[in-house]
Amino acid sequence: MTNDTATTTPRTGALGQVQYWLAVIFIVGWTGVVCGGLAVQFGPWDYPCPLCMVQRNFMILAALGGAYIVRKAMTGSISRLHYMTGWGLCIVGCFGGGFTSWRQTMLHILPGDPGYGGAVLGLHLYVWALILFVAAIATIGVVLAFADETAATRIPTGGAHELIGKLALWFLGLVIVINLVAVFCLAGFHWYLPDNPSCYQLFHDLGIIDGDCPVIE
C-alpha cells in the first residue's frame, strides 16, 4: 500500500519574497517605534517608566526576529526552519510586549486616571503599543497561512535586497545601542528604575549633578 503525498515547492518570484520583505518591514517598523519612544523621551523630556522600557525591549526582540530572517536570507539561501525561528522570535516579542502594554493600560483604566506620560493622537504610547503588538501577531498569522507561496528558499544577493537588508540591520543595531545608553543614564548604578523616573540618575551618581532625584509619587 502506498501513499501519494503532495509536495510543493515554495515560489521563487516576487510573491515568494513576501516573507523576506515583511521581515525587513518588521526591523524598520519596530525600530522606528522605539525611535518614537526615544523622541518622546528626549523631546518633551518624558521619562519612560519600567513598563515602558520592558515594552521597548520586546519591540527590539520582535525586530531581532526579522533581523534573523534577513541575515540568513542575505546569504542567498534560507530554509523554512530559519523562517520559523525568526517569526517565532517575533511572536514571542509581540506576545510579551502585548501583555506588558495591556498591563500598563489596565493600571490606568479607571475613569479620571490621566495615565502615564503624554498622549499621541489621543492615545497614550502604551495603548498604541498594544494595538501594534496585536496587529503584528495578526500579520504574521496571515503570512504564515500562505507560507508555501511566500517563503522562497532562494533570495537574490546583491542589489536592493542586500542594500536595504544591511541598512535595516545597521539601523536596528544603532538604535539598540542608543536605547541601552538611555536606560543606563536613567538607572545609573542601580538595578531598578523607579516607578516614576524624574531624572537621569547616572549624572547624580557621578556627581555631575548635585543632590538626589526628586521623588514623584
From TrEMBL:
Q: Which SUPFAM superfamilies does the record cross-reference, listed alphabetically?
A: DsbB-like
Q: What stretches pass through the bilayer? A: 20-42, 54-71, 83-103, 123-146, 167-193
Could you give a single Gene Ontology term from the biological process aspect?
Answer: protein folding
Q: Which GO terms describe its molecular function?
A: protein-disulfide reductase activity
The domain of life for this entry's organism is Bacteria
Listed A to Z, the keywords are: Membrane, Transmembrane, Transmembrane helix
Read off the InterPro entries from this record: DiS_bond_form_DsbB/BdbC, DsbB-like_sf
- Residues annotated as coiled-coil are none
> What's the protein's topology in the membrane?
Multi-pass membrane protein
Task: State the GO CC annotations.
Answer: membrane
Q: List the subcellular locations.
A: Membrane
Name under which the protein is recorded: Disulfide bond formation protein B
Native species: Nocardia huaxiensis
